[in-house]
Batch of 3 targets.
Target 1
Amino acid sequence: MAGYVAAIDQGTTSTRCLLVDHGGRPVASHQLEHAQHLPRPGWVEHDPGEIWANTREVVGAALDRADAEPADIVAIGVTNQRETTVVWERATGRPVHQAIVWQDTRTQRICDRLAAAGGVDRFRKTTGLPLATYFAGPKIAWILESVDGARAAAERGDLLFGTVDTYLLWQITGGFDGGVHVTDVTNASRTLLMDLRTLDWDADICAEMGVPVTMLPEIRSSSEVYGHARETGFLGGTPVAGVLGDQQAATFGQACFEPGEAKNTYGTGNFLLLNTGREPVASRHGLLTTVAYQVGSGDPVYALEGSIAVTGSLVQWLRDNLGLIRSADEIEALARTVDDNGGAYVVPAFSGLFAPHWRPDARGVIVGLTRYVNRAHLARAVLEATAFQTREVVDAMRADSGVDLRELRVDGGMVVDDLLMQFQADLLGVPVVRPVVIETTALGAAYAAGLAVGFWEGLDDVRRHWTEDTRWEPSRDGAWREREMRRWRKAVERTLDWVEDDE
């Protein structure tokens, strides 16, 4: 079948457009980074206007690289950094504040205030989530409480909220001139405001959080036609037909459609999702219950998720803040100049610890330093931190589900690092498998959009496109694994109780 699906992959550090053909193959792409605004310790912001401008540019550039015309695009899919919160004026499209990024911790006092009446699991039975700064609901509350006039404007119906998918979809379909204000079930499930079973906003939780329901988008499935691009030069007339939060998109792109299938994405953070089927599974070991996807009018499919805040961004920190490498792709070669980490461990609790600990009081540490440790040991410790955190999540997932992992499908920017992937297999004691196409986040959004317009026939059609590329088998014994994990757990303990109540 001729034509392409355009997948807009709006991530934490960059925006990309990937054109995908009927065989599930990437044809052309273009990517632009956007600025990370860090006004205070623990605060992370993005400029929504810059993200929208970059989105328009990467789509045009991808078309040029494929020598394609807008008429060649059969559908647009959108995948996005989840939880990142935008509040804007309905009449003008002007954001009332910078986007508050998922990593941001400024809402801790709001979370503490809400937890005072029922603990951090107060809303978990309904939403599948603990009270944490990670999620969008408290970020909306902070904007309404902190921006002059915002609450009154929201209560008048003058403000709209959206995670980045919603903001982009509204812009693409016309903005203040008739733009569609919707989100999908996967993104809505990351707000702390949606009932996992009804797939609708919970009015009581919204009221407790001080968020008017009128500013929230309509919740739709992950694969259906939401509207059409309005701008002639920006794929005008093309249906926007797929929306998935980035980690659910990667799960979809990895064809994890059966209960028990799992993937791990190695990006700015790490996110491991285990398909649990058509019923949500409550976690007792620090994981999140979330919606994996919903195709059209079909039943929703749920997942357990382990969310790790800092993995790929730790490599960026080593590059940008410490200057130990000039580019991210140098880290593997540097780490290979030594045989191990020299006894040093890096725990990157820059925004507290996410799964399975959920400790906002934690802060990052480097432990085990001696005169022997050099920059190569630190580079290796930075890579290994990603694998250690993943092992903690896998252990929690096993405890919750009772299912032993047989293999781990991996994707994301860090999976090109063979040293890290081998260390991951060694630490887990199971094979780690990388597919031929590692851009699975964008691929998942493309599949969702293509399914909605008949470009692909169904999930079996999508599954046929998944192909294994590289497999790393574990080469270490159980005693080595447990010794390494024991040292890692000691390092994690050193991060705790750093932020005090009066901070």
Target 2
Amino acid sequence: MEVLSSAVRARISILISGGTGSGKTTFLNILSQYIPRKRTSLTIEDAAELRLAQENIVRLRNRPPNIEGLGAIRQRQLLINCLRMRPDRIIIGEVRGEEAFDMLQAIEYWP
């Protein structure tokens, strides 16, 4: 736990993966306790599952299209926009689609 908490404090990118019900969200919620309180964290989620321990959290959620097929907000759009906001941390709940490429690019070039 010392290594992981040090990695969180040092702003090292961490990828958590696993099967359904394996405790990924619980693990992430525990790791979030080591993020400094005054830092701004931005989350992108399908459903609001994360219970982070910070005060400064901006929560973004994707939205499916309406009945006419309009108004959708895709996770990829949210990721691109949040990179422009320059938060201290970006936490993405799940990556399953086209946003994976953008996320990997962001990990490589994030300061």
Target 3
Amino acid sequence: MMKYIAAIDQGTTSTRCILFDHQGNLAWSAQREHQQIYPQPGWVEHDPLEIWQCTQQVIQEVLDQSKVKPGDIAAISVTNQRETTLAWDRNSGKPYYNAIVWQDTRTRNICDRLALNGDHNRFRAKTGLPITTYFSAPKIIWLMENLPGLPAAIEHGDAIFGTMDSWIIWWLTGGPDGGVHITDVSNASRTMLMDLQSLDWDDDILQAMNIPRRALARICPSSEPHFYGLTTPSGPFKAVLPVCGDLGDQQAALVGQTCFNPGEAKNTYGTGCFMLLNTGQRPVNSTHGLLTTLAYKFGDQPASYALEGSIAITGALVQWMRDNLGLISHSAEIEDLAASVSDNGGIYFVPAFSGLFAPHWRADARGVIVGLTRYITKGHLARAVLEATAYQTREVLEAMREDSDVRLANLKVDGGMVANQLLMQFQADILGVPVVRPKIAETTALGAAYAAGLATGFWNSLDDLRLNWHINQTWEPHMGEPERQRLYKGWLKAVERTLNWVDE
């Protein structure tokens, strides 16, 4: 009997390959970071060929370390940083340009142009998304308008677009030698081009943006029993294996946390922070700055939808403290530095490095530190860095309460930052609800594995997946309500100071 599902987790800062067993336990893993490229302020890029090289390396490392034979692997799944977009030549596999990362803000003028008469909700009824630099469609337009040979290459059928799942799956299934060009509904729902009801590219939006359908990937379920394609013996797995799971990273974490019922929510603390609330088999329109998105679609079953609050900078702020300021040598050191003081000393750090995402959606905002006095030390700054993540999460939760009228009993959390005890306790305090961390913290890769496992019968039902979920730790709120409201009021004042900084 096959023993493992292989999940490839292509994230914003690194790529991992993880083997999961039937109990959802992490059996083996390998990870490689890739370069962050900043050509100018507001621009963020990745080298797609470097990422594919890292993908091959982590697959090889896992197979070498584990001694697992390909015959022990039931299926392969991919999860990925969403919205990050590239164009490549289907004949050679050569990218026409670096991948433009989800954090990138170069497309602000394109977004203003698309928002006829300032209507940034022009496509929201169909896509669930406002017109912002975050999503893939403006990035595609930028590529077509700034790479002189690209429109002709599209016309000749040579150039194709994709998010990182499409790029990785295309290479896994043969690349120039017959690789399949697909994406799943969760990733497609982040492009600003897919109709949430039909689950297909919307021709009216494509025409409005002058984006050719022929260059886009075929949209598939997140879990595909008939598989998207097969790996090749010459590829990194050195065997023919089905690729049959594909989920954007935040939707994958929702699945990994087994939030299958309407009203269940999770928050992932990574480079950014992403809270998703399952709203069931109907899309819920947000009037409070949240995104309506596809959660997942398993085979022929109806699609499930979610409300999402996306925060651009959380873990990335800790990296900034490490790499740009040099106040810490390793990200984990931030907790001890923050714990060296009893509170934030009256300062707030709003990390609007690339504007504010949910619930504000203000591309004109930029980061601020407010409340500075001579009393402030690097310990206070470290504490303000961690608290910024918790405050931003509260803003999103408040918006979810307004949109859905759901009152969360607790918040399931995952991602790299949930190892930080100080942050998790402050998160429970500022929310006023328990924060719950599962035993298996790698929920993004696990959710992707679940998608492939359901497709192949490795797991038979959602109930099988729920049985794998166990609590590791719970943080109960201890802060009094007056203090909670006082601190949050200060945060909202700080957010106001970030607005209207960029004039054009």
